[in-house]
Write the structure tokens for this entry.
Amino acid sequence: LVQRLAIATPFVAASGASVYGAFVGRHDLVLEEIAVRIPGLSPELDGYRVVQLSDLHFGLFTGDADARAMVALVRRARPDLVVITGDLVDNHLAHAPDVGRLVRALERLRARDGVVVIGGNHDYYAGIEGVLDAARRAGARTLRNEGVVIGGERGFALLGLDDHAGRRFGWGPAPDL
């Protein structure tokens, strides 16, 4: 009995975590403010607000209500820049509602310096070019192994690297800093 319990425990724990994530955790949006001090940064950027979003996973389990909640949370933060760091979609882009939800949500995000999207592994599984095209249609800037300077000469560099999944599955270059 002890041996069977020892074998079953990891499977039960993983299944429980998956069920929690699919039905509860995806609604557990958190706005966490973290002050980051960067020596030499232009005083003009003092108080600059970057909202970073990750793992949105628009797909079968993420609906318009989830998108509206995310947009409301971002607006409440009053960002200067929104950066989305991967896994915008969860399924193949053939699921048209997923792309529509994604585009509608990105179009509603507002920040003085715009929205920047960097793809993640699920975006490669779904088709990275289609995901990034959808983001660009919504007005976002996309970064693939490139960067942009925010705030001029004494600002900071925002770098977007390709995900390892792209190279591993032959869908794109390796991350190249």
